[in-house]
Amino acid sequence: MPEINALCLRAARGAGLGWGMAEDCAHAATWLAARDFDWADTVLYQLETSGGRQFTPKVRRWDTVTPACALHVGVAFSDFATLPEGPGSDGVCVGQVSGPLMIVPFAARASAVLGTALEITLDGAPWLHLSGDNLRIQGIGLMETRIAEVSVTPAPLDPTPPTQAALQSATISRHHLSRLDELALKMTVPSSATSAKGAGADDD
């Protein structure tokens, strides 16, 4: 898991995210990988297909201009969990979200902070039940959804064991690895002509 965290942190930075958001992206990737979800595709979708960032957390229903980036929505949802703009007792609709699987690690964090389970629906269809890090999939056919209206509602705590890969293999295809590496390389600062001229065997 440390390798996944490091790779996704570099890829997120290479994609232009600030350090804080890049660290949140890496956290989400390792959380998803530990539960055998398609973490690499989820991260790449966020970094390569940027959703909008114009959303305003409000009580019961957030204002979302266009399908919003799930990473940014997830971080905001976690931050607002205990505030009136959070799920509260009646739930909240966070609007149209691009790549909703990325929200799940942050919803799990919010569930733990609130001490309650959370039900997540996509376009009104039951999707996931979260009790902290315990997760139960209710809509397996929705796992690859790219854009949907996401709603989150408090629910009774669930003793179901966490969904987790037996060996935490966290597999990744060569294609996905290549694309993440390509983004990570953009984090490297190219040497200036002056520094390149001064480099060599004569350096101290």
TrEMBL record:
Q: Which domain of life is it from?
A: Bacteria
User: Which Pfam family, just one, is annotated for this protein?
Assistant: DUF3726
Q: Which InterPro entries match?
A: DUF3726
The name this protein carries in UniProt is: DUF3726 domain-containing protein
Organism name = Sulfitobacter marinus
